[in-house]
Design brief:
Strand 1 and strand 2 form a beta hairpin. Strands 3-2-1-4-5 form a five-stranded mixed β-sheet. With 194 residues, it is of the alpha/beta class. It has two domains: 54 residues; 125 residues, 2-Layer Sandwich (Nucleotidyltransferase, domain 5). Helix 3 runs parallel beside helix 5. It is built from six helices and five strands, in the order H-H-E-E-E-H-E-H-H-E-H.
């Protein structure tokens, strides 16, 4: 357009914008575009705020009551499959803490995780907590024991865990990333080496 009409690039751009904005005018087109950008930013801010509120609600629901117990479990197998180590920690509201670090024989990492959960559940059963929040970094085991996604090869472990859970009070499970399960992870590694 600039070459054919003997115009500068600025003049050609201006004519193109005016032609595009013909029914409303260039000022109206710019105002509509700015309004659209502002509305998009407002929607984005509202989505971010809703996500933040949802995260806060989720975190609040995970927080144990002052009278509840908390537990962490982790299992490791090296190589996978290989020698199994089991680790975990059970904490009561009155300062009670018990830890375990055990060798678990030979198996894969999912079996190791489930075995660690079973040892933790047995420890909890001995204490009879009214409420228990269990943390673990194995999505497979947590999804399996809660029934979200069952794995056929883990049926025996699930049935044993469900039998113990039926004898306990209210139990909730919370998946956490491995870095937030460092204490149980260290205990499982120590159990594997012992």
């Amino acid at each position: 357009m600039a070459r054919h009409g003997n115009l500068t690039e600025y003049e050609a751009l201006q004519q193109l914008l005016q032609a595009t904005a013909q029914p409303h005018g260039l000022d109206k087109l710019v105002a509509m575009r700015l309004q659209g950008v502002a509305q998009g930013q407002a929607r984005s801010a509202a989505r971010k705020q809703e996500k933040a509120l949802a995260w806060q609600r989720k975190q609040a629901a995970r927080m144990p009551a002052s009278s509840s117990w908390t537990g962490w479990f982790d299992g490791s197998a090296y190589p996978n499959p290989g020698c199994i180590g089991l680790g975990g920690r059970l904490c009561g509201p009155d300062g009670f803490v018990t830890e375990f670090s055990l060798a678990g024989g030979y198996g894969d990492s999912n079996q190791a995780e489930y075995m660690a959960l079973l040892v933790l559940l047995d420890a909890a059963l001995a204490e009879r907590p009214d409420q228990l929040l269990i943390h673990g970094d194995s999505r497979i085991v947590i999804d399996d024991v809660t029934g979200m996604h069952c794995v056929a090869s883990l049926d025996d472990y699930r049935y044993r865990a469900l039998a113990v859970l039926a004898q306990l009070g209210a139990v909730r499970f919370c998946w956490i990333p491995r870095r937030r399960n460092a204490a149980a992870d260290a205990l499982s590694l120590h159990g594997r080496q012992g």
